[in-house]
Amino acid sequence: MVPVLLFPLLFLGPAVAQETQDGLYSLTYYSIGISRPNEGFPSFQATGYLNDQAFLHYDSESEKAEPLGPWKHVKGMVDWEEVSKTQKARGDFFLKNLKDIMDLYKDTGNHTMQEKYGCKIRNNNYCGAFWTIAYDGQDYIKFDTEIPAWIPLQPKALNTKVKWETEGSVWRAKSSLEEECTQKLQKYLQYSRTFLDRQGTHCSLCHAPLH
Ligand SMILES: *[C@@H]1O[C@H](CO)[C@@H](O)[C@H](O)[C@H]1NC(C)=O
C-alpha cells in the first residue's frame, strides 16, 4: 500500500493541492519550417502553448527562445538558455527533414513543414500525446504512442516512416512525449496553474480528437 501512495506524491510536487478546473492541461509546440523564407524572415519558428495560451516563442533568426505575455514576468519557470539551444538543434533537424521530404517529391522552391507536438495531463497524470507533421499544409505523418510507430498519412510518407524508424528509435519518440513532455508540463504548471485557472483557459486538445 505504502509504495503506491508514495509514488504519486513524489511525482506531483508542491502545486497539486489547489486544483480548480477538471485538472486538464496541455503543453503544445507548434513549429514551422520554410525552405525559402523571405529575406530577413526566419526559416524555423516554434511557439509553445500552455493550454490555449502562448508562452514561448523561438525563431531561427534570433536563435533565442523568449517568453510571451505575462510569462515575461515569471522567473525560474523556463531555462531560456537551455530551450534556445534545444530549439536551435530541433530547427536544424526540422529543416533537414523538410529537405528530405522535398527530395521524395522531387520538389524545389518554396515549401513548408508544420508540426504539432505535445502532451496532456489530467489530475496530474499523463493522459495523451500528439505529434503530427504536415507538408505544404497537408497532414503528412503522425506518431502513434500506443504501437509505437510513425503512421504515414500520404503514400510518400511511407518512405519517411521507414527512414525515421531506421535512424531513430520509436521508443525514444514515445518517451519524449510521455515522459519528458509530461514532466515539463508538470514543472511549468507549478508556476502557471493559478494563472491558467484564473484566466479560464482551455485544454483545447483534450476534447477534440486529433487526427
Ligand atoms: C515561402 O512560403 C512562405 C509561407 O507560405 C511565405 O511566407 C514566404 O513569403 C515564401 N517565400 C518566398 C520567397 O516567396
Automatic annotation (TrEMBL):
Pfam families from the UniProt entry: MHC_I
- Range of residues in the leader sequence: 1-17
Biological process (GO) annotations held by this record are: antigen processing and presentation of endogenous peptide antigen via MHC class I via ER pathway, TAP-independent; antigen processing and presentation of endogenous peptide antigen via MHC class Ib; immune response; positive regulation of T cell mediated cytotoxicity
**What keywords are annotated for this sequence in UniProt?**
Glycoprotein, Signal
The protein, known as = Alpha-2-glycoprotein 1, zinc-binding
User: Where does the source fall among the domains of life?
Assistant: Eukaryota
- Which ranges carry the MHC class I-like antigen recognition-like domain? 24-194
Give the similarity note: Belongs to the MHC class I family.
Annotated Gene Ontology cellular component terms? external side of plasma membrane; extracellular space
Organism equals Molossus molossus (Pallas' mastiff bat)
